[in-house]
Design goal:
mainly beta; 8-stranded parallel β-sheet; 1 helix; 32 strands
């Protein structure tokens, strides 16, 4: 099943995730071992001030030397070009991770990289890893066993469950991502849904290049989106979609289960 090797979907993976991506493996195998991988490699770094289930009363900042609860200011104005930033002694601190007031954690099993922004109203469940310069925007919901890669965006009112975002992948608005992998620089249009549970019993089977049926062995599997895939607003993928790099799903489209080669356009 050479066509289904993850190397045909993703050119690069973050070093922190490399243990998941074994050579010549089918990409749904990555989802099979995701839970154990996270629990083995997670290095939680939330401060003791976190109370599970209670929204943060004040913003907190993570620097290489540890967490700060005071001695910084948060700015969002013309000087910051409309972006929320941490400033200390009048200077921006690019490596600072900012967790805004109103963010809720269910437990301490969350690992943050540098320069992460988590906006008010987000809920994050552990165990999860959120790497350098990622964004978790207002009202986002990150459930257990998620890997959010560098510069990735989990957007407003977006829910992510047991999934992987590779570098610079974005689900900016009103999306659902379940049991899925977003490749590098993937962009999901507003309202995109990557459905992960089929109605009929049994495991999800995928139609291959010669229309052969390939059993994933998984009851739940969403979409595997290769690098630079784009989906239009309000598009939906059925469970078991494998979409090759540089492909496009037009707005309001529904994608049937199966393998789609690179540069496919689905209308």
């Amino acid at each position: 099943m050479a066509e289904f090797s993850w190397e045909n979907f993703f050119e690069n993976v973050p070093e922190e995730f490399s243990g998941l991506f074994e050579p010549n493996e089918v990409p749904w195998r990555i989802l099979d071992i995701l839970k154990d991988f996270i629990r083995t490699n997670l290095r939680p770094n939330l401060p003791d001030e976190i109370v599970p289930g209670i929204p943060l009363p004040e913003p907190i900042v993570l620097l290489p030397g540890g967490w700060m609860t005071e001695g910084f200011e948060t700015l969002c104005n013309d000087e910051t070009k409309g972006k929320l930033q941490v400033w200390i002694e009048g200077e921006p601190v690019q490596e600072a991770t900012l967790i805004c007031a109103g963010v809720t954690f269910t437990d301490y099993r969350v690992q943050f990289g540098k320069g992460v922004l988590v906006e008010p109203g987000a809920m994050i469940k552990g165990p999860s890893m959120i790497l350098d310069n990622a964004q978790v925007r207002q009202a986002a919901y990150i459930r257990e066993d998620c890997l959010i890669g560098p510069k990735a965006v989990v957007g407003h009112a977006t829910e992510v469950k047991h999934s992987i975002f590779l570098e610079d992948s974005k689900a900016g608005h009103f999306a659902y991502i379940g049991d899925s992998i977003l490749g590098n620089s993937v962009n999901l249009g507003a309202g995109t849904k990557l459905a992960n549970l089929k109605f009929a019993p049994g495991s999800v089977k995928i139609a291959g290049p010669q229309n052969e049926k390939i059993d994933t062995g998984r009851r739940k599997i969403g979409a595997i989106l290769g690098d630079f895939v784009q989906t239009g607003c309000n598009s939906v993928t059925n469970p078991g979609v494998l979409l090759g790099p540089h492909s496009m799903v037009t707005p309001n489209s529904t994608v049937k289960p199966g393998f789609y080669p690179s540069k496919t356009i689905i209308r």
